C-alpha cells in the first residue's frame, strides 16, 4: 500500500479536504478521493474525517492508497463520428461533454470506451490500459478532431510528429471582446497556476514553451470569431493564451469571470482541422470536423 503525506499551508485553510487533495493528486478524481475517505484510508492528524472536513493550517494528512487493481475498462456501443480511418489510425469528431479517456473513478462513457467497441482489440498499448490508442486529447467540453492509433508503430510515429510540431492543428473559437489585430502570435511559458493548481497559467519561469497563432475570421459588436493554430500543444493552451490577451473564450468559466449571456455548456472551442502524415506511406492526410450545431447557432445569433 502506498502512503502519501501532506501538511496544509495557510493558503488552503478552510478548503474541503477532498477538493484540496484533488488539486495535488492529478491522477485521482474527487469522487475517488471521497471513496478513500469513506473507507477511512484518509486521515487528518491521525483521525478519520468526512469529505466535507474543512482543513486547518498545519493539519497533517495521510492518504493510504490501496494496491492498484486493474480497472474493468469495457467497450461501449457509443456512436462515433468518424472523419478518417485506416489500418493504423482513426480520427473522430468528439462531441461536447465526452471525456477522452478513463481516469480513477470514471471508467465509463469515454471516447476510449467507444473506440474499444469500434476497433475491438485493435488499439495501441503504449499509454497503458487506461488510454489505449490515445496519443493526444482535448478537453471534455472542447469539440472536434481527435486522432487515435491502432498499433504501437503508428502511435510512436504520431507521438513523434506531435513532439516535433509537424501535425497541423487548427481550432475555431468565439472570444469575448473585439480583437484589434487581424492576426497575431502568443509566445509564452505555460505552467501550473500557483494560486489554483487545477488551472494553467502564463508563467515567467518553470513552465513549458507554448506558441499559438491566431487570426480573426469575423468581428461582432462584443465578440470575435477566430481561428487558432497550435505550434505547441500544452494543456489548456488556447484557453490560457486567449485569457492572457484579455479575450477569454466565450463560456470558459475556468479562465474567465465574465458570465456568458448565452446558455453554453463549457467553452466555445472546436478542434476543426487535423493534418498529419499517414503512418503507412507518409501521404499527407487532412481532416475537417464540421462546426457543431451549438456553435453554428451561436454564430447566427451574433450575426
Write the layout of secondary structure elements.
Elements: E1 2-7, H1 17-24, H2 30-38, E2 42-44, E3 47-48, E4 60-65, E5 82-85, E6 89-94, H3 111-119, E7 143-149, H4 152-163, E8 168-176, E9 183-193, E10 196-203, E11 208-219, E12 223-230, H5 237-244, E13 269-277, E14 284-288, H6 293-302
Parallel strand pairs: 7-13
Antiparallel strand pairs: 1-4, 2-3, 2-4, 5-6, 6-7, 8-12, 8-13, 9-10, 9-11, 11-12, 13-14
Helix pairs in contact: 1-2
Account of the protein in words:
The chain is of the alpha+beta class. The protein folds into 3 domains: about 1-65, Structural Genomics Hypothetical 15.5 Kd Protein In mrcA-pckA Intergenic Region, Chain A (Roll), CATH 3.10.290; about 70-165, Pseudouridine synthase (2-Layer Sandwich), CATH 3.30.2350; about 170-270 and about 295-300, 2-Layer Sandwich (Pseudouridine synthase), CATH 3.30.2350. The protein is about 20% helix and about 30% strand. The protein is built from 6 helices and 14 strands. It has helices at about 15-25, 30-40, 110-120, 150-165, 235-245, 295-300, and strands at about 1-5, 40-45, 45-50, 60-65, 80-85, 90-95, 145-150, 170-175, 185-195, 195-205, 210-220, 225-230, 270-275, 285-290. Strands 5, 6, 7, 8, 9, 10, 11, 12, 13 and 14 form a 10-stranded mixed beta sheet that branches. Strands 1-4-2-3 form a 4-stranded antiparallel beta sheet. A hairpin with a 3-residue loop joins strand 11 (about 210-220) and strand 12 (about 225-230). Helix 1 packs across helix 2 (about 30-40). It is globular and about 60 Å long. The termini are far apart.
Amino acid at each position: 500500500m502506498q502512503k502519501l503525506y501532506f501538511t496544509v499551508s495557510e493558503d488552503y485553510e478552510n478548503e474541503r479536504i477532498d477538493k484540496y487533495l484533488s488539486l495535488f493528486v492529478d491522477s485521482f478524481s474527487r469522487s475517488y478521493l471521497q471513496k478513500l475517505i469513506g473507507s477511512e484510508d484518509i486521515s487528518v492528524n491521525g483521525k478519520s474525517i468526512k469529505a466535507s472536513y474543512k482543513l486547518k493550517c498545519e493539519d497533517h494528512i495521510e492518504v493510504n492508497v490501496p494496491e492498484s487493481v486493474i480497472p474493468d475498462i469495457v467497450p461501449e456501443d457509443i456512436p462515433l463520428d468518424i472523419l478518417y480511418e485506416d489500418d493504423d489510425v482513426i480520427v473522430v469528431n468528439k462531441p461536447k461533454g465526452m471525456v477522452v479517456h478513463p481516469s480513477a473513478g470514471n471508467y465509463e462513457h469515454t471516447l476510449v470506451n467507444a473506440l474499444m467497441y469500434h476497433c475491438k482489440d485493435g488499439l495501441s498499448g503504449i499509454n497503458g490500459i487506461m488510454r489505449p490508442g490515445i496519443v493526444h486529447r482535448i478537453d471534455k467540453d472542447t469539440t472536434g478532431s481527435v486522432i487515435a492509433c491502432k498499433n504501437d508503430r503508428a502511435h510512436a510515429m504520431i507521438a513523434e510528429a506531435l513532439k516535433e510540431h509537424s501535425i497541423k492543428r487548427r481550432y475555431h473559437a468565439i472570444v469575448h471582446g473585439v480583437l484589434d489585430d487581424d492576426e497575431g502570435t502568443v509566445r509564452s511559458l505555460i505552467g501550473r497556476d500557483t494560486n489554483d493548481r487545477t488551472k494553467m497559467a502564463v508563467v515567467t519561469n518553470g513552465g513549458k514553451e507554448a506558441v499559438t497563432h491566431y487570426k480573426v475570421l469575423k468581428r461582432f459588436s462584443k465578440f470575435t470569431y477566430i481561428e487558432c493554430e497550435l505550434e505547441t500543444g500544452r494543456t489548456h493552451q488556447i484557453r490560457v493564451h486567449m485569457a492572457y490577451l484579455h479575450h477569454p473564450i466565450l463560456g470558459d468559466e475556468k479562465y474567465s469571470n465574465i458570465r456568458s449571456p448565452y446558455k453554453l455548456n463549457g467553452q466555445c472551442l472546436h478542434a476543426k482541422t487535423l493534418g498529419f502524415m499517414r503512418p503507412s506511406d507518409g501521404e499527407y492526410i487532412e481532416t475537417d470536423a464540421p462546426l457543431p450545431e451549438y456553435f453554428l447557432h451561436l454564430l447566427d445569433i451574433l450575426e
